[in-house]
Amino acid sequence: MARKLAQPTRGQFVSEEGTKEQRRNTDPPGLRLVDNIEKVIVGKRSVILRVVAAMFAGGHVLLEDVPGTGKTSLARSLAKSLGASFNRIQFTPDLLPSDLTGVSIYNQKTQEFYFREGPLFANVILADEINRATPRTQSALLESMEEQTVTVDGVTHELPNPFFVLATQNPVEQHGVYQLPEAQLDRFLIRVSLGYTSQAEERRIVESQKLSHPINDLEPVVSIEDILNETRSLREVTVEPNVSDYIVKIVTATREHREVVLGASARASISLYRLCQSVAWITGKTFVTPDMVKKLAPAVICHRLMLKPQARIGGVQPEQILEEILNQVEVPVVRMAAAAAGDF
């Protein structure tokens, strides 16, 4: 599983630019993908890494942030870096389930019905402002996200592989929105937020768009086959039994917390396990560390917690509860050699 960079032979001259290109070509597909997206999304490498890792782990992502922070650009950059098919769906109150899945249309010439695919038939789906659609339309995503299929008129249709949903919602605006039900929130492997950039980073963003948007110059750096291979390979990452126990103890503690009505389910344990494997694989590590679990836990668990009314009124946030749990659960000692602390 070890990955080594190609080295020049003795006496061979390699320019600095050539060395950079050589390094890019020998980097793991996940890192190439992160680096390419970072040309557009400035200063948010840790968020990009989580999104890419979630895709490799076979999950979906909920981006919760205010307008103008780069949510749409992140999804478009990801699709262009993959060379994959991409559809953007603007969710509105009058959107119907058939507007997503497709519809059967009667052909008068052949006197038969044929299926016209909806926008869900793409590798990367941007479900923009998902909480503006009615619960009926939101539920149309459940089958596609979990089973990677859609059923229309009793006929099941396979969606492309890989299939990745990146949904966005604005946490500030509450007029004309429908809160996502817990069953649908649980389908998202992680929830992340891009947030605002620093002044220096924002200046870089402004200057990079002087002539054209940098997304126009993005080229595919990873193929669909690479993604499928990585998805299979990351399962080889070692997770020691005490680290697995650590994951389960954290998730179980959310169900027993005094201020939580509904804690995280076993799906959260599986999601955190897979996400840790994916991040380890992308960053070149062969095993999962407890520190990795602690850093990735908020993205996986917080959106799955339902707090008691008293806690919500008192301003308690899921992040505070999880932080308390992480401080209480004993951190295991990994027998393997300590891995270098990574920025994830």
Summarize the structure in words.
- There is one protein chain.
- With 344 residues, this protein is an alpha/beta fold.
- Helices cover 43% and strands 14% of the residues.
- It has two domains: 27-235, Rossmann fold (3-Layer(aba) Sandwich), CATH 3.40.50.300; 237-338, Helicase, Ruva Protein, domain 3 (Orthogonal Bundle), CATH 1.10.8.
- The strands form four sheets. It has a five-stranded parallel beta sheet.
- Strand 6 and strand 7 (155-158) form a beta hairpin.
- Helix 2 packs across helix 3 (45-56), helix 10 (241-256) crosses helix 11 and helix 12 (290-301) runs antiparallel to helix 14.
- The longest helix is centred in the C-terminal third of the chain and has 17 residues, at 266-282.
- The two termini are 21 Å apart.
Radius of gyration: 22 Å
Q: Which of globular, elongated, flat, extended, rod-shaped describes the shape?
A: globular
Query: Main sheet?
Result: 5 strands, parallel
Spell the H/E element sequence.
HHHEHEHEEEHEEEHEHHHEHHEHH
Which percent range fits the helix content?
40-55%
CATH topology of the largest domain: Rossmann fold
- Let me know the CATH homologous superfamily of the largest domain: P-loop containing nucleotide triphosphate hydrolases
Adjacency order of strands in the biggest sheet: 2-5-8-1-9
